[in-house]
Amino acid sequence: MLTKKVEEFCNRQIEREGYSSNLYLAMAAWAESKGMAGMSEWLYVQADEERMHMLKFIKYVTERGGSAVVPAFKQPPVKYKGIKEMFKEVMKHEQFITGSINEVLAVAISEKDYATTSWIQWFVNEQVEEEKSVQLIIDKLELAGEAGLYFLDRDIMSLRNTAAQA
Fold it and tell me: Which residues contact 110 (CB under 8 A, 6 or more apart)?
């Protein structure tokens, strides 16, 4: 059984994971409208992954006897200055999510909820991978510059696999 405090923080994370999915959908649509098929595909995959994270939290809360709340999500931004700036926003957001996951872990520890402490570790590890993947793209964008953007857009999905293997 979840304590009310752990349930509250898990429900907060449900909202944050759902917003993340919508954020990446909005970014994908923007990138696609700019002719960046590879970038948009990467973002569509990210959006699906964030939705799955939200579902994991929903299922966990209900399995532990809590009440999962699926809230309305605020509308994410729909315009960006450029692809590099957009991915810097992705990194900022992933760092925010990392902090949020760490807060769930801290509450679980303080509430002596060892099941949640163990369960949330998957998300801690996932966030390390998320940040590493985004940093790889930012690094490649810096190296490629505007002239190399076509090739990076074409090859971006292979970077996703490279980051996961490293």
Answer: none
